[in-house]
Amino acid sequence: MTERPLLAPPPAGPSAPGSPAPGLSAPDPFPAERLPAASGQPRVRLNDHGSLTPPELGAWTPSRTVSVVIPAHRCQETLDLTLAALAGQSYPAHLTEVIVVDDGGGPALRLGEIRPENTRIIPSRPGGWGRAWACQTGADAAGGEVVHWLDADMVPFREHVEAQLRWHHLADYLVVLGSLRFVDLAAGLPAAQEVHDAVAGGWAEKLFAWQATEPHGWVEEFLANTGDLRDCPIDAYNVHCGATASVSARLLRAAGGMDVSLVLGEDTELGYRLSQQGAVFVPDSRARSWHLGLHTVGTREAEVKRHNWPLLAERVPELRWLRTHPSRRRLVPYVDVVVDAAGARYEDVRATVDGVLASTLPDVAVTLTGPWGTLTAERRSPLDDPLLDLRLARATYEHDGRVSFAEEAGGDSAPAMFRLLIPAGWVPGRDSLRRLTAEADTDCAGVLDIVLDGHDDLVTARLERTAAMTRARFLAAEGEDPDDVVHATFGTRWTSGEAWDILPAPAAEKPSTSRPNAETDRLRGEVARWKAEAARWKAASAEHRRQSAEWKAEAAKWRRSAVQWRRELAQLRRLRHRWRRRLTEHAPFLRAVGRTVRRSRTADEG
């Protein structure tokens, strides 16, 4: 059987990020892939990997080769333990290679005495540094059908590699994630022989006291809230952790490998690009491991976020909450709008492109397709040039960084999340793209077909989800329409352009210079809302003043009544005093009359 390199051979000239380094072409100890053709693989809907049933550990016969890539930086002590644990794995040794990439920055690393049979150490290629750089160096040198990332401070349990690789025998577009617990190193580290014996003997969980370790908290919470990612169709990539993850070499190549410009956050960024290649993310709790040391995010979370968020905001458009600026251009757009300029009138092309660029969705890009290579500088009649419309379109947008030119649209717009194909002469409204993408996300539709004109010839626009299209093209059988696969794995829908304010150019609203960007609209909306709120407060204030006047009048009336009552009370007190005085003056006479009356009654009774 012919041998197959993992990634493309080294290019001529200086190394480019993500490309193999000169002199690091990989020896290939493994035969070609044994996985069935893509058309025979299972078709997972969204990220519901529950439709796949992996074999029981120890009860199956593996056949796929795996390259365990370990980026290492000044970590000899923990590296020895990682290699010792890999030497005790249940996955067949003849199907496994281990590549340790020395990232420099200290004494040269060496291979410990206890290590897997097929283990080698290579230097990180010149020109860069960091985990992503080292990982890409290892991937370039690897020959396995599956690449398994493993950090140099991990102690994988006996079935760790086997648990992950059993999934890769089912489908070639899976990203498998292991589980880990963090170990506080205050109590010291075990010896390499002890680690090997524990892993090979199946009692690695006893190497450290369970109660003295910590889980990967936020990841476990994310998995619990999403049914182990089965109910997480769009952002499952968020838990992609390179400390223990595996991916097919084919999928890694399709995604473009590591972004070697990143020194932190590279796991999330790679996970996003893998998702845009149709990946399904599968966590396997049986792929257990110890992480020797506490989690960096757990101990310095605020600093890590401060470092990573600006970088991820440029590269991961799905993180909408990081893209709050209303008009900034981003490295990776959220939507790539493709407009075919071939054979179209310049005025129609301009109307469509201007409508897109005026969108309230700021992170959009436009790809103008057409035979741009035919626009030569030879002498011509300026006004009678048959390519005049094409020339005018290029002249209008060649200096706009949001617009690019291509001969053909290509199969997808990865790593952008969406692609909108719209014919020249049809203009989306200012909020059309935002509403369309939101609608596509309500049920994670793979394609929205938009009918623009159905009277004579059917005219349509088409919003494509990149992840759905890339997965469909991989899974489609020969001669099968990829849209049928999209319908089965993501779903497709038909809708009307009028419902989304996509109108022909003569009927569309022209972009206004008085409203240069979405921020102006937002501020004007805020002003209108505050004016309405102020009017409500003024009305409420007038009502309060009216009620206050009534209360003042009522209080004055009560004060007048109180004065009258005090006067009447004083008069009654004077009358009481007068009567008491008169009674006192007549008291002796009244007492004498009383005695006379009592004596008369006594005489009558006698």
From TrEMBL:
Q: Where is this region: Disordered?
A: 1-60
Residue stretches of biased makeup (Pro residues): 7-20
- Record-annotated membrane-spanning stretches: none
An example of a GO molecular function for this protein is: transferase activity
User: Which parts of the chain are coiled coil?
Assistant: 555-582
Residue ranges occupied by any Glycosyltransferase 2-like domain in the UniProt entry: 67-183
| Keywords of the record | Coiled coil, Transferase
Could you identify this protein by its name? GT2 family glycosyltransferase
